[in-house]
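ok trying again, last paste got cut off:
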Amino acid sequence: MPEMIKMTEKNTVDKATKVASLPTNSRNGLPNCVGKDLRDAINLINSRGCTPYAVGFGKVHRQIPPAGSSITPAAVCTLYCSVEG
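nice, full thing came through this time. structure:
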């Protein structure tokens, strides 16, 4: 089984504690996925225990609920994507 790695708020590895943490607008809030590739955004949403729902493909240009929102496990986060900027 792979060993868990801890990352600091700056998204770097903290070798002393080896536990992962993802950057967000608030400590336990929904991460900001705007501007990220859809695959990366889905991984971020899943890592928070939420269910991602994608509309379109490409880069995320909008998300509901917005970044930093309080979330509950299994909550749905809708990611609106497009290939255009």
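cool. The radius of gyration is 14 Å. Residues 37 and 56 are 12 Å apart (CA to CA).
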